[in-house]
Amino acid sequence: MNFRSLGFIIGIIVGIILVIVLLKAINRDGKMKTKYDERQLRVRGDAYKFGFFAAVLANALLLVLSTTEYGVGIFGYTVFFIPIFVGIIVQISYCIFKDGYVGLNTNMPRFMISMAFISAFNFFIAIMAMVRGGFIEDGVLQAPFLNLLCGILFIVLAAEIGIKMIMDQKGE
To answer: Which of 80, 82, 96, 135 is 20 to 30 A removed from 89 (C-alpha atoms)?
Structure first.
């Protein structure tokens, strides 16, 4: 195992630990589990289904592209994460616009601050890699590309929550 692989594994483990701490911090009751009512649980189930199918379709599209002259070689091993991000965005978007995303015990100001911090941190890592020349090596995107995707994911999340809040205010 080389240092890059070890760093990747350690990054995933640290990320999981941070998610656990963050979940406890953004819920008003200090519990890791966010509480949802029955209707929200139904919406979330549908959202996971749509997210799954979006990930499958993204995977199929990447498979087809890999057989063409355009290929997907520039993505390297990060190509495996693209369908995951597509599925997550579809799942989150559906939940937000069907009122199944924000839990009953979610502290929204803390949640939004946390998401802004996560986005900024990921953009910082991606930009530092671009500056240092480690974003693309030998014409292939490296791990910091995933940080860029993660930063974009949280920007999309914040924008959708903002749009949903505006829609709800106008609906009243």
So the answer is: 135
